[in-house]
């Protein structure tokens, strides 16, 4: 049996807004994690308003469950904004370009199948950049 206790998980979120619980991680982390080759899981915590960098995943399905707070996701190719709140689950499929922004106090559990580092950063146009500047900024497709 392998396990992580709450104190170890919380330690990973002290200085970072994301901690990995399990996976085949290539970069060092602040906290322990369970090594797995075929699955990845972690927690993202938005201590303050944060907009992630636009990206896609080349081969993973990414499952996101909002534990608390509120997250906005912009599906870039579809030019569509979605809002997810505590208790909501959403899945990003491979090659779906997206960006998300979270309100302060938002916590999200994410998992990726089959796992592995497949994040590809993408260039954002000005409408995406403006959308990410604040929580209330609307998406206005150019």
Q: Which key features would you list for this structure?
A:
four-stranded antiparallel sheet; 142 residues; six-stranded mixed sheet; 12 strands; Jelly Rolls; mainly beta; 42% strand
State the order of secondary-structure elements, H for helix, E for strand: HEEEEEEEEEEEEH
Task: Please state roughly what percent of the residues sit in beta strands, choosing from under 5%, 5-15%, 15-25%, 25-35%, 35-45% or over 45%.
Answer: 35-45%
The CATH superfamily bears the name: Jelly Rolls
DSSP, total strands: 12
| Spatial sequence of strands, sheet with the most strands | 2-1-3-11-6-9
Based on helices, strands and strand pairing, what is the structural class?
mainly beta
Mean pLDDT comes to: 93
Largest sheet: 6 strands, mixed
CATH topology: Jelly Rolls
Q: What ranges have pLDDT less than 50 throughout 5 or more consecutive residues?
A: none
Level-1 CATH class name: Mainly Beta
Number of helices: 2
Counted up, domains total 1
What value does the Rg take, in angstroms? 15 Å
- The helix content is 10-25%
Q: Per CATH, which architecture?
A: Sandwich
Terminal CA distance: 52 Å
What is the 3D shape? globular
